[in-house]
Amino acid sequence: MPAANDLRKGQAIRYNGDIAIVLEVMHRTPGNLRAFVQAIIRSIKTGKSADVRFTSTEKVELVDVERREVEFSYQDRDGYYFMDPTTYDTVQLDEKLLGGAKDYLVENMKVQVLYAEDRAVEVELPSTVTMKVVESAEGVRGDSANNVQKPAKLETGKIINVPLFIKEGELIKVDTRTGSYLGRA
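RESULT FIELD:
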């Protein structure tokens, strides 16, 4: 079994008899104290996140995680539906599992789904997505101070800040990690 020092984001571990996904890992060495690993993990059964500490030499049990690439098909009141492009099977995931990823899902978008013990546990988005601006106020001529931005509503309903020159109907690139505008597509 590996030590807690070897933990990485995206790994699945067995913690208190439950499987949990590691969301963040920080190695800490405070002043005169011994080093420890502080991790934020999310339980698969309950979906709740917890902040836990391990000594740097403490052993953790890793659980095998399988990654499958799927395409987003559609969404209805029951959940979000994805298609496996190799087997053409449809996979339904609920909104709670997707979390903030649902704001970036556009039709036919490829995403990675992490499976632990044949159960979907997390959705990984690409780092950037191309989305259409569906609603945005007009920029006023003469508003040319440095980095002036305006709110814009995207096709998924997410609202982000964009530069004044972006108009309705344009395709833009959005960073899925920060939710910020990157440029025109």
